[in-house]
Write a structure and sequence with these properties.
Layout lengths: L1 H17 L35 H10 L6 H10 L3 H12 L8 H13 L3 H12 L7 H12 L5 H13 L10 H12 L9 H16 L6 H13 L3 H10 L9 H14 L2 H13 L6 H13 L3 H13 L6 H13 L3 H12 L8 H15 L16
Helix pairs in contact: 1-2, 1-4, 3-4, 3-5, 4-5, 5-6, 5-7, 6-7, 7-8, 7-9, 9-10, 9-11, 11-12, 11-13, 12-13, 13-14, 13-15, 15-16, 15-17, 17-18, 17-19, 18-19
């Protein structure tokens, strides 16, 4: 056993000189564009690589019985807290005659590298998996996708991995599943902000949604909410409603986030009447919208001079322990002053100050009071016009 440990230490020193995991794979990837990567693309700082002592490494090697399998190696790597020692074991095993890494050992090494802040080693492991260094495995592919989707510069590599999964035969049992589409859509939707810049990512969302349906993958509520969220952010209301109506077909029920995305997009699009329909439907089901949905509803109703509905939504927001911001308060009260309802605006301000649930603090009250005094001066001698109604 001592002879085996000494030979392992010698092999380890030899493998360290080779620096197997420091060889750049960027030129062999099908996703690179040939342009040098900028330093700003690095998402996380890499911890300095520390070589573990030979005695500690030899002790670990001595625990592996002769003829150990990839499962034994994966268990040893997973139980080791030191990422450098875990990766050293992985490299040493690759040099053993007749040994071939299995998906379990690659998965354990990838977890050790990513959790131990060794992104370069983890990235090289992903390239090895993409090149076919081990047999296909769904858990390993999804772990590689999770690592790539969490880093902006590896986003194209995630789609290379996705295309590899799609190209595998059905018998390999490695076709994309719900977790695969959830990882990709989460990464894509994170980049969807406002049109027109987000149209490119919206095309990716549509493509992934079509491929998911064509492959027979049954989505869950979280995955469908991601698709609705992407459409809602781009104000594609009809597409969002189409996915919303398809949810019962997959056995999924809308939740507060589903209604929140649709209601917020409705108000931003100017479809206030339909937005209130879905808002009331959500409240009847007991769902509590987020603060952003509430504030969008209050402001949209106030801008259309639907003050009674806007006030009711604001009171409901305070009852649900959601705190409005200054812009929401000012939008409602200043629009009331512009409509000639100065006394009602001051009365609402005092009512909000005296509330037991969600009262105004003194600073916000003083700023709102000063703003109402200033904006109400030109409207004192005007007749109050009629309320405007939405044409939708």
């Amino acid at each position: 056993m001592a002879l085996l440990a000494a030979a392992a230490a010698a092999a380890r020193r030899f493998s360290r000189r080779l620096r197997l995991l420091s060889i750049p794979h960027h030129l062999s990837s099908s996703s690179t564009s040939g342009e040098p990567e900028s330093p700003s693309d690095v998402v996380e700082p890499e911890s300095p690589v520390r070589a573990p002592p030979d005695e500690q490494f030899a002790a670990w090697v001595s625990r592996l019985r002769p003829g150990f399998t990839a499962g034994d190696l994966a268990e040893a790597i997973s139980s080791e807290r030191d990422p450098d020692l875990a990766l050293a074991l992985f490299r040493w095993a690759a040099l053993r005659p007749g040994f071939r890494h299995a998906p379990a050992s690659y998965l354990a090494a990838l977890d050790a590298a990513s959790s131990g802040r060794r992104p370069t080693a983890a990235e090289n492991l992903v390239y090895d998996v993409l090149a076919g260094a081990c047999s296909p495995d769904l858990r390993l592919f999804n772990a590689c996708l999770r690592f790539c989707c969490a880093r902006r510069r590896l986003f194209p590599l995630a789609f290379d991995m996705f295309n590899k999964m799609r190209s595998l035969p059905v018998s390999a049992a490695c076709r994309p599943d719900v977790e695969t589409y959830t990882l990709l859509l989460t990464s894509v939707v994170r980049r969807v902000r406002r049109p027109p810049a987000s149209i490119v990512y919206l095309h990716a969302v549509r493509s992934l949604s079509r491929q998911m349906k064509a492959s027979g993958v049954v989505p869950d509520t979280f995955l469908l909410n991601l698709i609705i969220k992407a459409y809602a952010r781009c104000l594609e209301i009809d597409d969002a409603l189409k996915v919303f109506r398809e949810m019962p077909l997959y056995g999924c029920e809308p939740n507060e986030f589903t209604y929140g995305y649709i209601v917020k997009a409705m108000f931003q699009k100017g479809r206030t009447d339909k937005g209130m329909v879905y808002f009331r439907e959500a409240r009847e089901k007991g769902f509590v919208p987020t603060g952003g949905v509430y504030m969008t509803a209050v402001s949209a109703l106030a801008l259309e001079w639907r003050f009674e509905e806007s006030r009711n939504v604001l009171i409901d927001m305070l009852d649900c322990k959601r705190k409005p911001d200054m812009i929401t308060y000012r939008t409602l009260m200043e629009e009331m002053c512009r409509a000639g309802r100065v006394e009602e605006a001051f009365k609402l301000l005092e009512e909000l100050k005296e509330r037991k649930r969600g009262p105004l603090d003194q600073r916000m009250y003083s700023e709102l009071l000063g703003g109402l005094h200033w904006i109400s001066q030109p409207h004192q001698d005007r007749l109050p016009p009629c309320d405007k109604r939405s044409d939708d």
